[in-house]
Amino acid sequence: MKESNVQTATHQPAAPPVNDLPRKIRQLPVSEVYGALGTAEQGISPEEAQARLKKYGKNTIQEKKGQPLIWKFLSNFTHLMAILLWIAGLVALIAGMPELAIAVWMVNVINGVFSFWQEFRAGKATEALKKLLPDYVRVLRGGEELRLLAEDLVPGDIMLLSEGDMISADARLVEDNDLRVNQSTLTGESNPVHKARDQVLRTDISTVESPNLIFAGTTVSSGTGKAIVCSTGMDTEFGRIASLTQSLKDESSPLQKEMGNLTKKVSAIAVSIGVLFFILAIFLAKSEPVAAFIFALGMIVAFIPEGLLPTVTLSLAMGVQRMAKRNALIKRLSAVETLGCTTVICTDKTGTLTQNEMTVSNVWLGGRNLEVTGVGYNAEGGQILEEDGRPADKDNSDLCQLLTGAGLCCDARLLPPSEENSHYTVLGDPTEAALLVVAKKNGLNLDELSASIPRLRELPFDSGRKRMSTIHQPLSGGRLAYVKGSPKEVLDLCTRQRRNGVVSAMSDDERRRVMAVNDEYAKKGLRVLAVACRELTGEVALPTSLSEYTPELIEQDLTFLGLIAMVDPPRPEVAAAVKKCHKAGIRIIMITGDYGLTAESIARRIGIISGSHPRIITGLELETMSQTDLEEALKDEVIFARVAPEQKLQVVSALQDMKQIVAVTGDGVNDSPALKKADIGVAMGRSGTDVAKEAADMILTDDNFASIVNAIEEGRAVYSNIRKFVLYIFNSNMSCAVPMVLYLFSGGLIPLPLTIMQVLAIDLGTDMVPAMGLGSEAPEAGVMDAPPRSRKDVLLNRPLILRAFLWYGMLEAIFGIAAYFFLNFLMGWPAVPLASEGIAYRMTTSITFAAIVLSQMGAVFACRTDRTSVFKIGLFSNRLILVGIAVEFTLLACLVFLPLPFLHNLFNTAPLPLKHLGMLLFIPFAMLLLDEARKWLLRWWDRRKKKNRNDQTHTNMPKDAKREAI
């Protein structure tokens, strides 16, 4: 053996170029594969393995280095608003106002931390990919079987495969024994794929579909085999997906972009106003430069909504909590709002739109079609019905023989629900599991049948034969074979048929009739199997050895028993969810690894497509399409079938180039690039791989498409609520700015009615909790009846600005200034120079502060609706707003009415007599009633415009149409 090893090493074939191999080696016969892959039947030598390891590198998924976490964190403290506030705090410190400096800097710290929390998402998709690759692998090197680390695998190594093994690299099969591989990590389809070593000359299938190739990250479901490694590490299909995923950068969400633009605009406006009023303070109020600067700083603080970012983040967090109750877990906060403006959902089929439980729907035998009720792998409650709806006779010999043959010619097993799993679990092929279930629905006990008709041998499914056979020896005597497979392939071998308990010859016309039935089932997207049997007699019944039972010997002169049609049924709630999406102006595009005909059937059944001739684009067709052709195709009803990972990514990118906001669903490793590229990636919580979950922004805990629609509804509500509390927090900007303008244009004769610390108390203290209450408003009626929000529809639009500044803001300013002058009048101003009387001046600023805070209490109720009366939705229906009012009132009491010297000194306030509280309490009610009057006028105006339009339409109608309308 040692001599042969040395000789092998000496004459070792050269290693092949890796990248060109997959398409080439699948076309080679086994005899030529060894040479093409630079190896021999006993494998490469250890010395050659070391040389190739140096050449190709470790068989691992390499991770690209991203931006260090510390830089991501620090970037939240260096944007325009942050820099502005850092400088403002520094200047306040130099000016001898350390409490103001600390307050301004704390604003920066709070905003930075919340922004980091909002934007941060750890890139763990690559780590999850690594976990799918095994640690060890069995190989043949130098004629010896070795167990070595998977990372040491090199091209040319011969892998030994058995049931349950995780595959470590891409390889070409050279030996197989009923080998089935679960490729769901790459294709998304859960059915095990039969693999065979034979060469593949077809050019109309993709690399992943090649039956003689196996791939890293997949699993051996059953059987054994031997394969030669052709690609390792990042050169594998698995590595290619990892590379695609890592190459995609995290894009800012629409809300993040809008908040960034809003921050820049508000900061620029605030600085401009500050500079302008600094100049005016010097020339009009004759202020000293330091005093003018502090005044200008107060104006900047008044116009910067310091609490905006924290409040937005908290509102998004509340949306996350509400979505969690509706089976949607949000990983990235900004994704909440992105859902609200989604225009297209690219969804896979299996498990999301369907139940991922193959179910027999029809049985055809003896010239009649039987319908099977019940869905899934639980046979209880299901039954088999005749065409007229009557239950079929369970003792019918034709039906029993058909279902017995189908049930015994299976390798799958069904495990009942357990403590670990509340659902039935399938071991093996889901298609075969469906056959076991339909047999149970007819009352057959397959365990007893297996005991009374024990299996002797199996002729496994082969992709060339497209069928499998099992040989049995009934206890009653004799031997028989059951065959199931593709209808055409099975029918071609049938010479007889069973009908009404009688076996008779089968004519060509009857074969054509059966195939016509098969075609009808196929048009409905059903997967159809034919079942046949053969009684083994004479020499065939008693071979010398069971190994002599070959397909050529057994699969001939068969008796046709019937057809069994099955489907992965749509989830019952999906059709209503799809209808809801269409009503909301959201388009749905199916992108699946399944066949086009099946995909079209499901899409039509649940309402995704309605046209008579939707376009079905396969992965092979997509390879040849230009970007322009793809965008044209995306304008019509279209389904994408049998697509590769980069092609799903291609479709998503094309939609985004068309200015669409795209949500993508997925569960497999193959979906991770598209999930990361999408504006909102949605992974399946039950069936999804860890890779898909890490790449996604949202995880569905019930794997249900309807939960996406619920999440979109919540997302729209979140954006509406963000706009409500943006309106609310901008109200106080005007009410805080007007007192300062009053001081300025009076030339300093009117002392500042509001201090900078009191402005900060309003922005960061009293406004925050009520604003959070607005962020928790439930979705308004009709939120899903409107189309998605336009990209041009900015958060801070003109109607919002006018309402915030010129309505709510001015009303609050009027209440605040009126209270200020009222208290001044009671104290004898202007005879007493209040600016020099510390306690008196503090009392007047305190009442201004109190009036603005109380007017904000009324405004928070008013901001809950645009036109609808708040009394109609329930004045006290939002508990968080009531909590906010309580918190707001408590803070007001601590700063103004209770004897707390520390807080009074910090915020320049003084205790007010309780008699003034009674006067102030009318302000929130006045605020609310004034706004109710405004809303009543708007509703009256809307009704009037609608009536005028109807009258105009009626005037222009022909006389006959008028009579019909009447």
Explain this structure to me?
The protein has 5 domains: 2-45 and 135-239, Calcium-transporting ATPase, cytoplasmic transduction domain A, CATH 2.70.150; 62-132 and 248-304, no CATH class; 328-354 and 571-703, Rossmann fold, CATH 3.40.50.1000; 359-567, Calcium-transporting ATPase, cytoplasmic domain N (3-Layer(aba) Sandwich); 722-946, Calcium-transporting ATPase, transmembrane domain. Helix content is 49%, strand content 16%. The protein contains 39 helices and 27 strands. Helix 7 (98-119) runs parallel beside helix 30, helix 29 runs antiparallel to helix 31 (768-775) and helix 29 packs antiparallel against helix 33 (838-862). The longest helix is centred in the C-terminal third of the chain and has 41 residues, at 705-745. Residues 24-97 form the Cation-transporting P-type ATPase N-terminal domain. It holds the Pfam family Cation_ATPase_N. Residues 1-11 have a biased composition (Polar residues). Belongs to the cation transport ATPase (P-type) (TC 3.A.3) family. Type IIA subfamily.
